[in-house]
Design brief:
Blueprint (H helix, E strand, L loop, with lengths): L5 H6 L7 H26 L2 H12 L3 H11 L3 H34 L2 H4 L8
Helix pairs in contact: 2-5, 3-4
Length: 123
C-alpha cells in the first residue's frame, strides 16, 4: 500500500534529516496516521464493533485487527489513503521549517564551546 521510508521523507522534502531525526519523523507520521484513521473509522463503528476492534488493539494483535477491518470495513484502505494524502500535504508545507529547526538544533549541539565558554587566562 505505502511505505514509511526514506523515499517518503524525500518526497516530503525531509530527505536530508539526520538518521535519528528521520526515524523520529517516520514514527511520528505512523502514529499520526494511525490516530487519524482510527478516529475516522471509530465514527462509523457501532459500540459493539468498537469493542470488538479495541479487543484486538488491547491484545496487540495487529494481524487480527487488520483482518477485522478488512471484513467489517472493506474500504478502510481508502480512508488510510485519504488521511495519508492530507498528512503528506501538511508535512510538505512545514518541511522548510522542520529542516531549519532541525539544522539549528543540530548546530547548537555540535558547538559545546559556545555553551560552556572556558575562562580566559589573563597574561
Amino acid at each position: 500500500m505505502f511505505q514509511l521510508d526514506d523515499n517518503l521523507l524525500r518526497e516530503l522534502g525531509l530527505g536530508d534529516l539526520p538518521a535519528d531525526e528521520k526515524n523520529k519523523m517516520l514514527a511520528h507520521i505512523y502514529e499520526t496516521l494511525e490516530l487519524r484513521v482510527g478516529m475516522r473509522l471509530a465514527e462509523k463503528m457501532t459500540d459493539a464493533q468498537l469493542d470488538e476492534f479495541e479487543a484486538f488493539i488491547d491484545r496487540n494483535d495487529e494481524p487480527g485487527a487488520l483482518r477485522w477491518l478488512e471484513t467489517n470495513f472493506p474500504n478502510y484502505k481508502d480512508t488510510v489513503a485519504e488521511e495519508l494524502t492530507k498528512l503528506k500535504d501538511e508535512i510538505k508545507a512545514q518541511a522548510p521549517e522542520i529542516m531549519k529547526a532541525t539544522l539549528s538544533q543540530q548546530a547548537n549541539q555540535t558547538s559545546p564551546a559556545l555553551d560552556n565558554p572556558q575562562p580566559q587566562n589573563p597574561s
